[in-house]
Amino acid sequence: MVRVSVEETIESLLGIDPILHKKLLPQMKGCFLKLNHKQFHILLILNGTQSLNMSALAEKVGCSNQQLTKLVNEIEKLSLVKRRIDNANRRNVLVALTEKGKKFLSDCKKKLLDAITPKFENFSDDEINALYNAAETIKNILGKH
User: Fold this and answer.
1) Which residues pair with 85 in a beta bridge?
2) By Cβ atoms counted within 10 A, which residue in 18, 36, 49, 81 is the most buried?
3) How many CA atoms lie within 13 Å of 84's alpha carbon, on the beta-carbon side?
4) At 95, is the secondary structure helix, strand, or coil?
5) Mean pLDDT by 10 residues, the chain (145 residues)
6) Do 82 and 47 meet the contact criterion of CB atoms below 8 Å apart?
């Protein structure tokens, strides 16, 4: 097997983003309210948990606590998340999705599926499986490091 250089790998990965934006993401306009990518990512992370403390959330998002505070402030103003003091450790601030935040994500997922699913109608089952496996492989490899 021929070893691919790190540079070639990075160029290939960076080439995915424009294709995603061109082929899939235009249908997502209007779904995100006034949220930026990181704020939407925060909602997705919180969707899989009851709540997270700010430090753990900052680590998962890949930003500093100070940056996270600004991001959470904005989505809290939209009533999509709420903060509360951790009863077990009063120094920790926990962040959780509100019911409005859960509904927003559910509605957004439905809009996305409705908009993007037709793009996959011309793909064979093998192509859909290959895309799924490639996406899972990328998430697994990048998630480890």
Assistant:
1) 93
2) 81
3) 10
4) strand
5) 85 84 66 79 92 93 93 95 92 95 92 85 93 91 80
6) no
* CATH assignment at residue 115: 1.10.10.10
Residue pair 45/61 in contact by the 8 Å Cβ criterion: yes
Residue keyed to tokens 């070893």: 3
Q: Which residue has the tokens 């904005």?
A: 74
* Stated pTM of the model: 0.76
Q: How far apart are CA 135 and CA 127, in angstroms?
A: 12
Q: Considering its fold, how many domains does the chain have in total?
A: 1
Q: Does the residue 17 lie in any domain?
A: no
Instruction: Copy the structure tokens of residue 86.
Output: 């951790």
Domain with 68 in it = 27-144
Quick one: which of 70, 97, 65, 69 has its CA closest to 81? 97
